[in-house]
Amino acid sequence: MKLTDVELLDELKSRFEENAYSLKHLSELNLELMSLNRKLEESEKMKSNFLSNIRNEIVNPFASILGLATHIQACGPDRMDKVRQMAAMIHSEAFSLDFQLQNIFAAAELEAGESHLSCMNVDVSALLESVIESYRFELQKRSITVDLTCSCKGMEFKTDAGKLKLIILNLLDNGIKFSQMGGRVEIVSSCSQGILEVAIRDYGIGIEEKNLAFIFDRFKRINTDVNTLNGGYGLGLTVAKAMLEALEGTIEVHSKVGEGSQFIVRIPEAKAADEVEGFAADANEFMFDSDNEIF
């Protein structure tokens, strides 16, 4: 059937409109693909930086341990003071290495969905004191004091001791790392109505308000580096937050540049069904009622 001039013009107009819509849609898809490609490139760059930093964080403590051990072997019996000093440094480096690996393994388990709860009665006060003691050498070296106020002393709280300890380790590490020489870090802990609250405050460099939204992003780096807990690869806070989510807890951040930061975590007590038999003094030492064995 032959189209009239008017019908032909309408058909051409309709097809032009369809083509225009298709071109607009293709343009929008192209912009989305370009944006996705930029994000993938940024992700690859961050992962590359992550691997580079991880290598340094693992290799450096190993090199220090090996070097110090060599010096100890060369020391005679008349230099025991020097040996003790180097042994303390070895312990500090070994702790640093263990801490980095704990975060890496925890992140891998969380990524694979293989992180499970192992809740028991925890002596929160002993756990906090153990975490502070872990940093004794670093604190002495930088003349930083840690003030602990724990109103739940002598109380037991049902939770996963390992996850709780890693959360506190990361937050305290953050506070120490960004404190000035001779600075101070405060830890205040309380337990009320089945909720454990731990607040860690430092008086260091602080975090810019615009960066607060990014500090829990994995591998995310900000210009001031205040979100990176472990040598700058941005994993510590990510792990801490993920651990808190596994414990159905929350984290709150208050910070001001030049005045320091405060991280407040709140964790509900584990349900009886999640609990396993036993007692944890500090997440490393476990005691079982059946035979009073300690591991």
From TrEMBL:
Gene Ontology molecular-function annotations: phosphorelay sensor kinase activity
Lineage of source species: Bacteria, Pseudomonadati, Bacteroidota, Bacteroidia, Bacteroidales
Protein name: histidine kinase
Domain Histidine kinase, chain residue ranges per copy: 53-271
Keywords noted in UniProt: Coiled coil, Kinase, Phosphoprotein, Transferase, Two-component regulatory system
Coiled-coil annotated spans: 26-53
SUPFAM superfamilies: ATPase domain of HSP90 chaperone/DNA topoisomerase II/histidine kinase (SSF55874), Homodimeric domain of signal transducing histidine kinase (SSF47384)
EC main group: transferase
Enzyme Commission numbers on file: 2.7.13.3
Catalysed reactions, as listed in the record: ATP + protein L-histidine = ADP + protein N-phospho-L-histidine
Pfam family, one: HATPase_c
Originating species: Acetobacteroides hydrogenigenes
